[in-house]
Amino acid sequence: MKVLHVIPSLAPSYGGPRQTVLEFCQYSQNQRWQSEICATDADGSGHLNIELDRPVSYEGVISRFFRYQASSSLHYSRPLKRWLDENVARYDVVHINGIFCHATYAAATACMRRGVPYVVSPHGMLEPWSLRQRRVRKRVAWHWFYRPVMEQAAAVVYSTEQERELTERTLDLSRGVILPAGVSTSLLHVRRGETFCARVGIPRNVPFLIALSRLHPKKGVHLLLKAFRDLKTNGRLADWHLVIAGDGDQRYVRQLRHIVLGTPAEPFVHWPGWLNGDEKFQALADASLFAITSFQENFGRVVIEAMACRTPVLVSPQVGLAPTIAAARAGWVVSLTDVGLRRGLAVATGDLTELGVRGQAAQDLVRNRFVWPRIVEDTIALYDHVSTVKRPRETAVATVISHAKLDD
Description:
Blueprint: E1 2-9, H1 16-27, E2 34-40, E3 42-43, E4 46-47, E5 55-58, E6 61-66, H2 78-87, E7 93-97, H3 102-114, E8 118-121, H4 128-132, H5 135-151, E9 155-158, H6 161-171, E10 176-178, H7 195-200, E11 208-212, H8 221-233, E12 241-245, H9 250-260, E13 269-270, H10 277-286, E14 289-292, H11 301-308, E15 313-315, H12 322-328, E16 331-333, H13 338-348, H14 352-369, H15 372-387, H16 393-406
Parallel strand pairs: 1-2, 1-7, 2-6, 7-8, 8-9, 9-10, 11-12, 11-14, 12-13, 14-15, 15-16
Antiparallel strand pairs: 3-4, 5-6
Helix pairs in contact: 2-3, 3-16, 5-16, 8-13
């Protein structure tokens, strides 16, 4: 079986979806099908330094890149559309990643024309919070282009049950299946060390809390900083330190730093910048607690990476994994209010023994549900199923055309 994964960009700045697609393809190389990736060369408003219009090995996966020609949000690419039209019939299944981008529409319409089944992973882009951002533009795009794309999909793949419920209830969709991202089993064996603490200036044997993400208002890092500052100012948290690992718009980063500037908390807050690879995993393993206080997070790969390293997590209810974390007692779910966050942070940091217990529960949860061998096996079953259900291409294309006519 041949499977094509379509994604707007594979640049590191594209975050979790990019990493999920690449790791899935890497971990499924020995299975009984061939996985390839098709993407634009977009890297923010610039371009990746990569060969175009031919297969190349990108992080060990056969990939094809096409020049993105316009719009850093839509990633419009006529060469990508042309290639999909001419080649999509060579694949048994197409897995489309993302919504509100040219690659999604180009891939879906090519599949409809050729009668190739496809599945779509929205990656949280159809949750209510996301739909409220640039609301008018997204409403028009959804009505004219992306609703028929979703309705003709053989399946819609969600990362969590919470994402599925929010999306299907809001948009009256169906055919949703849950396939979370996974992590390497090697993360289960990362051990605590001293190298990261030495780098950022945290004393040995001192507990620290880490927040690791893109520094963006959506992530709620400002609320976490305020809660930490207030507790420190009131003589709480003892010798706890806070690590804010990530990067973002420099104006926003300065606003974040200003929250603790000149307060008793300032010496206890560290800003190491963006962490990657082994350094990131070592930081997660060394931390006593991981926090993500996002206003919207359909999954949160770094959450399962932290839990795999036996670090308990503190999350907001808006994180898609929150119900699973609460049920497994793998951490704490706290409300995104000043009072709720202060109270939750005080409770989570108040008992080192309980931190250890919940850290072990977190690792057990990942071992049982979120490692790549299990995720790959479940995805194989989905692809096997949808590949046997080929719709007549005339019916699929006619559905899109009639949708447009009815709304004229």
